[in-house]
Amino acid sequence: MLDYNRSNLQLTTFLLLGIPGLEDAHLWISIPFCLVYLLSLMGNVALLLIIKTDRKLHEPMYLFLCMLSVADLMLTSSTLPKILSLFWFNDREIYFEACLTQMYFIHSVSTMESGFILAMAFDRFVAICHPLRHSTILTPTVIVGLGLLIVFRGAVLLSPHPFLLRWLSYCKTNVISHTYCEFMALIKLVCSETKSRRAYSLIVAFLTGGLDFILIICSYVLILFTVFNLPSKAARLKTLSTCVSHVWVILVFYTPAFFSFLTHRFGHHIAPPVHIFIANIYFLISPMMNPIIYGVKTKRIRDGFLKFLTIKCVQLCSL
Q1: DSSP secondary structure, 279-314, as one string
Q2: Is the pTM of this model over 0.85?
Q3: Contact 175, 14 (CB under 8 A)
Q4: Backbone phi, psi, residue 94, to 5°
């Protein structure tokens, strides 16, 4: 039932539908969601502890990876608890202000993640194309400055989003056909003109995720030119191997992100469950995979993970 504040015709609550058509399977769907969420929490916390305690990992790539892990923890923790509550307890209700807050965190933190992945690409570009200047270009001050700039960009550019939706009239329904609150799902419920708001959202998406992806592609084009000019095949393979982990992170992050973005705006004929599954994969898989990808490729991180798991197992057995 619609719950209105009569003085300004604003909704006071929304109802999250979950995954349309699969409501009866929510309990079963929650099992992999919960497992992936726990793995994401454990993996990213362990990654942060390992890099913090091992001074040999205090390099630009791993410091940017720490920033990405913090963003992953923020993103999953702002969405998954409510999603699991919906699946387990049919807790569909979310207050209007809470919905706008969740939407802001989702979009701003996602923008920060994109920026950190771009910063990691810049690190690879400098390390491969200008190896002798790597330590002088990416100094601790520059790394901190880049991190703060990325956070500032995400926080400021996305800050208008809640206000763009705050004072609109939601006269269609208060049911959101999704597992969480996000800009396009909310704006579809508005009964007034929304072209300017949609345009702003599209421009911000291009200036952040879209531009980041273009710059990442440009950096890797320059990296490939440098690599193919190396004298030996062994040197080329060794240099390219330092980029493998980052390339996997790019694919895991941007593939579901772009699919979700494009289907929301242009994929009107795609079945809603498919779109929502992909949107949730974006929040689930990327935060879980980032520690695994770097753990597999980096021996010191891999050894740190094994040590971390051993300590946890010993603690559990001693209880």
Answers
A1: HHHHHHHHHHHHHHHHHHH-HHHHHHHHHHHHHHHH
A2: yes
A3: yes
A4: -140, 130
